[in-house]
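Page 37, top half.
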Amino acid sequence: MTTRKNGFMIKRGLEEKDLEEIKKLSKICNEYEKIEVKLNWDMLQSRSKGEANDFLYYENGVLVGFLGLYVFNLREAEIGGMVLPEARRKGIFQKLLEQAIEELKRRGIPNLLIVVDHNSESGQRFAQAQVGTQYTFSEYCMELSEAKQQPKRFEDIMIRKAEPEDVSFIVNCMEISFQLPKGDIKPERFHQPDTRAFLVIKGQEKIGVLSVQISDEGAFIFGFCLLPDYQGHGYGGQALSEVVQLLLEEGETKQFLDVACENKRALKLYQDCGFVVTGCNDYFEKKLGSSKNESSVV
């Protein structure tokens, strides 16, 4: 006889059944509030079994609460999640958040970003009610509608797929372009089988990078940057357009990306290449201490 799952569970890695349950829960919540909870499906499908990143709550064998933890660098982590509408106002997500915070303290990560769909009334109320939390910025969610191939204005600008020996340049380029502390980007992210990177080359020189993470949901474009000396010349639009075409040729018709709402230049670049705004996420920052307390994992 199978015992029904009940209560809280912290997991290292997700199995196919877990993903199906999370997808079912997110579908119900999205339809209920007419939103799109940001869950980073590409990352959920490739979770490391060496880290606790997913926090679940069950009632009578049914998943009613989920929180996903997404660590992109050593300074901060993002969370996204939801609770079944009829199971809300019981403190479920608050408990899931507390478990995630304990895990972050154990790792020594000092900042947490709570990601909330701009149109989610319940999510906005929850984030704003957290002690020590403040709104920091918003991002547009964009999806490729109809690719608009940009003219090849620069004959010496080309794209090539990155090789393992290019990872040090990728990390360095992102840290310089995004003004991140040295060592902030995890090099291992670019060695994952579902991640590929494209270098922007001018003549014989590497001047930028654009990365893509592939999942069942489509191709998510991230980390697109050029070194400062090469920004503002129109190279980015040509490079992005070529990568979009390469992905289309490989059958990746669903392409997504996020862009900061205040970054009007990048927004226009993406729109010129055929991307349209499909939603908006607000980010609320909560500063944490650090702790060496271990969290229990099953």
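Page 37, bottom half:
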Amino acid sequence: MSRFQLIADGRAQLTTLRQIRAFVVVYRLRKLAAAADQLAVTPSAVSFLLKDLEDRLGVKLFDRSTRTLEPTEAAHEALPFAERVLQDLARFNEIVREAADLSRGRVHVAVTPAISTALLPTAVPKFAGMHPGVRVAIDDCAPDQFVARILSGQVDFGIGTPDGPNGGLEIHPIVDDSIGLICRSDHPLASRRRCRWIDLRGVPVIALAPGYGARHLADAAAASAGVELSIVNEVNYLSSALWMVSSGMGAAIFPVALARLTAGDRIVARQLVDPSVRRSISIVTRHGRSLSPACRRFVEVLVDDLRARRIRGVLPNA
């Protein structure tokens, strides 16, 4: 049973919400039978609640006569505080119900700039239109800050690909992505459905800067294929890689799904094989932290939006 503390005779006494409700209703109605009807209990139950409350507090709250109960001075002084407790409880219940039915709430999500640009521009407005009372806060952080944001509890969850150790995280993939070649449609390799890593020998390449997880995977895949990449530019953002590709400065090595979502008509994405490098985009939460109804609904809207956009790689159980 929910409780709050009152201090009486220098000792902490636990007073139940049932007793507070009974006190307030009896104070207003002044009759046990009428109070019992409103509380949906018997008059003897109301009498017991009041007597127990008075015993706990060590003070008389009502003077009893054959017909009515008259509040004492202590009851007059206590009433505003008792009413405030019930009002706060009603407001508490209202807020919880509103959060459950998405009338209000907040979604705070960490996401890297590339994934934010690719996945969220249509999903966020859709969600806002469906649930205008829920505030969406986007923390577009650098990849090396992504996991820290989630583990520290600064955000409700993240959308991305955690790099390095995943201890303390729960990872639910939503898009199966792969590392691929992003090039102009008139590039010599654009006509191929797939490209091998060995085909990149001597090809000017735009790569992510060292320290990014996708760069580490690309370097490892090229090394296993016996290829030394001819890197002409290193970038931190997908947007930079795309304008460089569009300008003819080279072909980029980037996650394919992200590039396809943001690239223009003149740019194509080709999967790199031998070896293939998979890299899922996931909903990432701190271990043991459950998502609020608003956060769960946001993820549903996001996945539905990706399917509506016919994004390749959206997982069936996402």
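Margin note: The longest strand covers residues 105-111.
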